[in-house]
Amino acid sequence: MESVKKIAILGYGIVGSGVAELFYTNRKQIEKKAGTALDLKYILDIRDFSDSPYKEKFTKSIDDIVNDDEVVAVAECMGGVEPAFTFIMKCLEKGKSVATSNKELVAFKGDILLKTAKNNNCNFFFEASVGGAIPIIRPLHKCLAANRITQITGILNGTTNYILTKMETSGLTFEDALKEAQQLGYAERDPSADILGDDACRKICILSSLVFGKQVYPQYVYTKGIREITLEDISEAKEKGYKIKLIANVKEINEKITVSVSPTLVSTENMLSQVSDVFNAVMIYGNGMDKVMFYGRGAGKLPTASAVLGDIIGSISSDGTVISQYWESSENSDFIESFDLNNYTTLKLKSGKELIILN
Amino acid sequence: MESVKKIAILGYGIVGSGVAELFYTNRKQIEKKAGTALDLKYILDIRDFSDSPYKEKFTKSIDDIVNDDEVVAVAECMGGVEPAFTFIMKCLEKGKSVATSNKELVAFKGDILLKTAKNNNCNFFFEASVGGAIPIIRPLHKCLAANRITQITGILNGTTNYILTKMETSGLTFEDALKEAQQLGYAERDPSADILGDDACRKICILSSLVFGKQVYPQYVYTKGIREITLEDISEAKEKGYKIKLIANVKEINEKITVSVSPTLVSTENMLSQVSDVFNAVMIYGNGMDKVMFYGRGAGKLPTASAVLGDIIGSISSDGTVISQYWESSENSDFIESFDLNNYTTLKLKSGKELIILN
Q1: How buried is B106 (Cβ within 10 angstroms: 0-12 exposed, 13-18 middle, 19+ buried)?
Q2: Do the domains at A5-133+301-317 and A137-297+332-358 have one common CATH topology?
Q3: pLDDT in tens, B60-98
Q4: Which CATH superfamily groups domain B5-133+301-317?
Q5: Which residues from B are below 8 Å from A307, CB to CB?
Q6: How big is the CA angle at B311 (ends B134 and B335), to the nearest 5 degrees?
Q7: What's the whole-model pTM score?
Q8: B146 — contact with chain A (CB < 8 Å)?
Q9: How far away is chain A from the Cα of B306, in angstroms, using its nearest Cα?
Q10: Is B307 in CB contact (< 8 Å) with chain A?
Q11: ipTM of the assembly?
């Protein structure tokens, strides 16, 4: 009889429960793509889920998973740096591949985790950490591998894009649009990581690290959120042919890279201006393909779970470490050019805000 | 000393010469991603290129390439079914992986080529055959592997999209827009494969075969081009909130699939309506990720070359056949539901044309 390989989920929140649900919904197809019979053996969570249909799979001890040789791949959906980092390190050191949706962790500790995976001949994958369901990590390092990537520009935070869309289309103030986003579950009770730009910052760090081969830490990134954007700014932008979007950007300048997150005037001619509500999109520029854009749901239970499970399938069907998805630690920031508005075309609004223009 | 692996190009037209150019422009990075030193050893073409900087690489005999054990991967950029098919079969039978931009070949002979690659433990890749530079094949079978794909809808032909865009934005007639496209090199002297829908048909065949696992031949596809679309149709559509686009579509109906190419009313709310000029885009619907869209240049020298070289890198850096990118021959068409307008929401224009609506 063919042996059944086992997977585990760390964290049974929105994404983790989505991974379990989607796995059982699409199990046959997932097994076919992975080339092996598969089952979910453990779910790690400190909370009790005695009503869950999966109740017998729950454990509170990471060691149950780490020490079980049947477990070949682990989906980390806990969020935050600790204890996720410690738990993942234990899994990788045992040669178990890990797929994560945790952008904070990858932005701060990606280099260490990638190195540990490499040393243990397994994979640390993170497709779900940027752009939710949107395939972006694998296309960047695989499909576009023959290009020199010169710039990446994206709408990477769904909450702020929802707020800006509502301000533009329904005339809601920032505060009211935020309240609506919270009621719909698009924004958290403490929305600061979204509206101050920190979430988008972590995601552009991950894309920058992947493309340029060195860890780009959040502190290297000029980060400005949308809190100060007013209805007047938005209508002035509209008159002039722009929409205001929170744009995360990395580009080459003077053989270095410069990375930023800021409210930006996006020309209505640019496809990114058409990305509304909670959708995300990433435009990638390269010297062969010109530009390509990826668009889809940047968050949500099943969309994010679909990306995590795609990585689980990829890790099980590949032998050894995928070396092209890798970056080194950065001892210093001498490959980063400081952010300087003079390197961009800008427009000063009546409110005095000087915003970058994206044509 | 590390051995240098060799590649060959079949056909030195627009795409083939782009592959050579982009390879030497980005060689260092390509070698890094492939994990080995690489060089271009042969270019096969029946014409003489004695002025070319690569003149010593030209050969008129496929056997030079087939019998050279140094050659590990071959880029086929000849177009047409023969002699490309015979040449590729010879390469695959010797265990040399092949990357192609040739949609006609894949749409008619994909099953045989994939089987031959599998039997010889090498790869037959075709990212460049659909959507030019846009990563679509690998994301479909890798990144979105955890989804049940329910529908794929795309603008897959740049020539017709250019013509429709010019009719809409500049008020050119079909004939004048076609003439302009020909002058710009976007349409061929004989433009029938584009404007009758055959080119888009071949591409949706490839995507359908990949997703549903059986060869979908062009004769199974309801195919209607844009020749009859008038300026009046376009302006009536605009009044009603639509743009007319040539849409290739495959969707599940009654546990079968139905495949079509036809002029379609795309709601201006739909991202596909924003895809203008020669750009292509593909929207993919699945039960996990909801929908994602890929957008970019669907043709052109370097964009297409970038996809071919991405596949060359992929074939060199992978051990053995990528089994998930595979489909079977189809003995009959009993998995295809005949096209029936009653399965779609439609609108009858004043001219009497009944077009499908895409919201």
Answers
A1: buried
A2: no
A3: 999 999 999 999 999 999 999 999 999 999 999 999 999
A4: NAD(P)-binding Rossmann-like Domain (3.40.50.720)
A5: 143, 146, 289
A6: 70
A7: 0.95
A8: yes
A9: 5
A10: yes
A11: 0.95
